[in-house]
Structures are given as C-alpha cells and as structure tokens.
Amino acid sequence: MRSLACALLIVTLSVFLGGCRQADGPVPAPSQTYQEELVDVARDLQNVATGRDPNGPADLADDLRKYTEKPAAKPLVDELSARTARALQGRDLADQDAQRLAHNLWVSVYAKDLSERQVETLQNDMQALLVSLGVGEDSAQQVAAQVGEVQSSVTLRPRRWYELF
Asked: Where in the chain are the domains?
C-alpha cells in the first residue's frame, strides 16, 4: 500500500511539473505590407554587407526601429542593427539569405509573446544563419545575444508563477 501511494505521488508530481513549462506564444507572420517592407530591410542588409551605402547601418536601424513602440527597446534595436552591420561587412549576401535574415530581425523586434524556448530557438537560428554566411562564431554569437536582449525588452508576456519549474 505504501509503494502504491509513493508511485501515485510520483506520477502526480511528474504530471504537475511537466505541465508547468512556459507555453509557446504565437510567432507573427508578416502581412503583405510587412513583407514589402522586409524587402527594404533585406536591401539595407545587402547595402551594409557590400559597403555600397555609407548610410546602410543607419537605414537598417531606422527600418527595424519602426516595428517597436516601446521607447526602452529602441536603443537595443539600434545595437542589434549595429552588431548585424559589423558582422555582415565585406560579405556577399544573396537575395534569399538577405530575406531570411530580414525576417529573423523582424521577428526579433516585432514578436511580443514568444516563450523563452522560442526566443532561444530564434537566437540559435540567427546564429546558424550568420555562421552559414561566413560570419565568425564570435560575431554571430554577439548578434544572437542581442536578439535575446531585444526580445526581453519588447515582450509583453510576463512569466507566470507556475512557469518557474
């Protein structure tokens, strides 16, 4: 009887603690308007990479900053833009890669309800994409870390008490 009670307690605790994980939030999908704007962000990224436009980093920051309303997030978005610009300098950035990078940056700035696990996935995706483009591991890690900082600043989703486990 005692072992049955212990087994029941273990199963109950396992179910309770297993259900306490932070639920995933909706990952935003860009509307048609945002998709058109992301073409401009991708062009900014290509200008930054090739160095054709000396105003490329500022244009990139301006284009990303408009996706957040929080004043405290704007300097963090500027830093994300600057780190991304430094990482991409001297790279040849194909259209498809620029679009993927623009989309990841947009999600980083625009998404308001991502779970910690989703933010970590976004950071890993950003780092892997940059490394695949020939960016050094250290620079890619710095950009990915800044993605986490931006997300911490723009999120509207607080951790709930039951998500502490």
From this structure: 24-163
